[in-house]
Known about the structure:
By secondary structure, this protein is an all-alpha fold. It has one domain. Helices cover 71% and strands 0% of the residues.
Amino acid sequence: MRFRRVRELLLLMPQLAGLIGRLAADPRVPARVKAILGVTAVMLASPIDLVPDFIPGIGYLDDVLVVAIVVDGLLNHVDRAVLLAHWPGDAASLERAGRLAARLAGWVPRRWKARVFGTAA
């Protein structure tokens, strides 16, 4: 069941990558959030991972958790209209992605999430 959620988030990665790029260019997005988006993009592009990507089944787990934390944080720290303006799908698909991200981000200790967006998510 949980691996299905991870798979769903992996399938969302291309949409999320586009969202990160468009939000980083939007002047309505706070500078702190843009910095978080930049660090996220670098982390995802980096070949250095906590769990090497070539390990079957769990290789992308660290990337998925980073994306889940960031998506969950975006939904809590960026105006919904701004997110919807850049999201390639409809509002319902953004909400589904947000619920999925919140469930996966629940695996991460609150204090770690608080370090990313400055408040407990």
